[in-house]
Amino acid sequence: MSPKILASILAVSASLAVVPLAASAKTVHFGSTLNTAQEVPPHGTEGTGTLKATYNTVSKALDYKVSYDKLTGPATAAHFHGPAAPGENAKPVVPVPADALASPIRGHAVLTAEQASDLMAGKWYFNVHTAANPGGEIRGQVEQTKK
Question: What are 56-88's pLDDT values in tens digits?
């Protein structure tokens, strides 16, 4: 191989070494404490719950687990809602399938860019509905956590 060709190959190789690799995924952690006081309007029941979730910024995958206790009856529906600040209501954006409502709820969703933006901005809440409280029995604003 001629020295000129070898020099060209080395120059190209060196320039490729400084090209950044594809962005690595960042995992963002979320959590929430669900209770009746955060429902709009609030309820006086004893229901409580917790949500833990992770969001992958590259795959746009949201994985979540919700545990709840002391509801007035079986869960009839559960959803992530948004965009909404605390004290505001919004439409469901990620529903939980009807066959996955038993505690603990485990789920997975791939978010749109708009959904991801609202989630990252703290504009989502999660609530669990029952027959006695069809508008929602427990609710919690979804916030970023350290883990």
Answer: 999 999 999 999 999 999 999 999 999 999 999
- The residue among 143, 137, 105 whose CA lies nearest residue 39 is 137
Say how far apart CA 53 and CA 64 lie, in whole Å. 4
- The candidate with the shortest Cα–Cα distance to 138, out of 42, 3, 8, 56, is 42
> Does 7 reside within a domain?
no
**What's the CATH code of the domain at 118?**
2.60.40
Q: Whole-prediction pTM value?
A: 0.82
Quote the number of domains for the chain: 1
Q: Tell me if 9 is assigned to some domain.
A: no
Whether residue 93 lies inside any domain: the answer is: yes
**CA separation (Å) from 137 to 34, 46, 64, 72, 73?**
9, 9, 19, 8, 10
Q: Is the dihedral of CA 38, 26, 116, 136 positive or negative?
A: negative
**What is the span of the domain harbouring residue 124?**
24-145
User: What is the C-alpha separation between 11 and 4, in angstroms, rounded?
Assistant: 11
